[in-house]
Amino acid sequence: MKKKVILLGIVGMLLALFAGTSAAQTAPDAVREAAIVAAQNALNTTERPSDWRWTFLASQSTTALGCGLVTGTPLPNAMSAYAFDITFTTGVYRVHVSADAEYVQLCDEKFSAAQIESTPEGTPTVPSCIVNVSAALATVYQLPSEDAAVLASVGSGSAMMAYGRSSDSTWYQVAIPNSDSLGWVSLDSITAPFACQQLPVKASVAGDSTTGSQACFLVPASTYSNVRTQPTTDSEQVGSIFEGTTWQVYARNGESTWYYIEPGWVASSVVTLQGSCNAIPVNVELVGAGTSQAVATPISPTPLAVGLTTGIPTDAVCPASFTDYMAPRIRVGQATARVVSGGIPNRLREQPNTQGSQIGQVNPGRTIDRVLNGPACVDGYVWWLVEVDGVTGWTAESSFADEDYYLEPVGGAATPQVAETPIPDEVPHMALEINGTGIAMTTTDSRVLVALSAPVDGTSTQPPQLLLYDVPEDMATDPIVPEVIESEEITALGTLPNDVFAVVTADGTLNIYDTSSTARFEGIETDADDLISALSFNSTGSIMLLPACATTDDEGTCTQGRIDLWDAVEGTVIRRQPAHTTVPTVLFSPNDQVIASVGPDGVQFWDLQTGGFLGAVASMTNSATYDITFSPDGSQLLYGTCQIDEEGTCIDGRVVTIDPNTFEATDTTFADHSDAVSAVAFSPDGDLWASASVDGSIFVYDAATNERLYTLAEEGVVPVDIAFTGAEGHTLAVLGLSLGDAPINYLTFWQLDVIE
């Protein structure tokens, strides 16, 4: 018998050592596909591999997953992994994948160093999630059930690191303080910030049935276990479950040799049972159909990653008169609503409907921290996007069928501000009339380029123009005359290093203009054939961002925006990724590592190397967010928007500040304008920043103290765009539109004092 054990051990080692000689089709499908998709993304190809082989790697403790090229970060629990050698026409590439397909590591020097060191596009990372005990005492259970064994009790105010969540986000898998063990804690006794919703699902539960009744769970006994339609080995396989995951059992066969979980039937011989499994009812009539959860195969990143909808879906727009709905009583803003006392808790959901996944709840009498968006109307319910204790989700204000309100307003109704007309400061300036409609402006430190549509003086046969202005040093001199450059129809402008301008024309050609000679160099051919916002280049001018529209409706309205990343030298597309509900405004961070984009649904951040989603700040309203700008040191991002009341009236224009390191809005918000903020800008030295509004005012602030230094305005002119320029970087160039009968534009230069 001893010889047989030794022989089996040798055979096992040989199989592990020579697993590369076996086709990888015997590895879990999700694991294989995770490896293939990661390699395809890294190689920028859609080609399917001609062959793949794998090696099994047991007990890996870091996200390196056994790859010797990187160090990795610690995993909450050691897990098995697979090393795949994948064959494309360009060569064979190695990729490591965890047995549950959650973690992927590129592990081949044929990939770039940056790709190896970063997380492959679409690959989940280990989110950082700290939960805090809000109850007097939080009980930590062995399983996500109050019937499970108690592992520990944690006092109020304690913080715990969370590594996983249940499928309904009502339980979190946490590291028990002063212990090496993991356990489960209920959402009823903790507060979990929104980042925790990005944790991997580690337990599939049946919602309320996990409490108040005996529960049974199973976990795979090895790297994975097959799931079948019927409780027999010859029935169809409909999926697999992986090590490190927990599944609630709903039924069993009479012999207790098969157990039914959400995807289907699993044999007892390949799992470990936990909990009160003898009390599970016998029911062999159930048929497995596979998991309803998202598959583990990496996919293109989506905003907020976990299914949370932050904008109002097109099928949830409220009717004008709120027919068949209760009229809303609350509004967007800080602490403007609370849950009606004496009732039941309000649930927080990922989408504005009763089928949306529950991600939290708000107790009766509790004031909502922030109402972010709404109203949305679905099936008689009026919904609002809210934030409570760091968790963002949709909650219902009212039900038409029940004729009842669940939320009540706090404070008075929103009323428009009575804004005083700002009195402009006496600042030296030069206003230049432009006979045409300015559609875009961009600047260097010495020149300003304005793109015009056809002039409005009746000469409609004259083509569009580019006007190139020198920045005046003395505002008392005669008005400067621009150089006029004839052009095709212009869709976008941008600035490259060394005083070079980039212009995209309607046929998609990127033209380069050297400002020292106004020589034109025809550059790459893009596929931008529609009106887009400003171009953005990285600090070297080698990479370009082209915002575009991905999909349109039957009327030609853009319903899905897109960000295209281009190699500006070779003229090739590096990556295209969906973003926002319309064509966004985009720009690079000062260190060229992050892409920021803004649309009606808010501000989103993306990793430049991988395209992976980093974070988002949802729009406070359903109105447009107009402009964004980074501070030169990258420590701050500003965006301009407008606070809207329930009648759709702009109450005040706002500038919101975001910390680009945490991708969260700060407590500093400026509501000085009486109408929408159309543009924001920092000076090159970072000493000043400015905001321009549809109300005609321009405010300039000391960036260090946020004290308002200047109030600027030109009577009868609405600022459209602003930028700091000039030798000292403190001349503010303003492209404005006249409010008169003819759409005459003005380019105004304001000479601001340098802060000492």
From TrEMBL:
<feature type="repeat" description="WD">
    <location>
        <begin position="670"/>
        <end position="711"/>
    </location>
</feature>
<dbReference type="InterPro" id="IPR001680">
    <property type="entry name" value="WD40_rpt"/>
</dbReference>
<feature type="domain" description="SH3b">
    <location>
        <begin position="226"/>
        <end position="271"/>
    </location>
</feature>
<dbReference type="Pfam" id="PF08239">
    <property type="entry name" value="SH3_3"/>
</dbReference>
<protein>
    <recommendedName>
        <fullName>SH3b domain-containing protein</fullName>
    </recommendedName>
</protein>
<keyword id="KW-0732">Signal</keyword>
<keyword id="KW-0853">WD repeat</keyword>
<dbReference type="Pfam" id="PF00400">
    <property type="entry name" value="WD40"/>
</dbReference>
<dbReference type="InterPro" id="IPR011047">
    <property type="entry name" value="Quinoprotein_ADH-like_sf"/>
</dbReference>
<dbReference type="InterPro" id="IPR003646">
    <property type="entry name" value="SH3-like_bac-type"/>
</dbReference>
<feature type="signal peptide">
    <location>
        <begin position="1"/>
        <end position="24"/>
    </location>
</feature>
<dbReference type="InterPro" id="IPR015943">
    <property type="entry name" value="WD40/YVTN_repeat-like_dom_sf"/>
</dbReference>
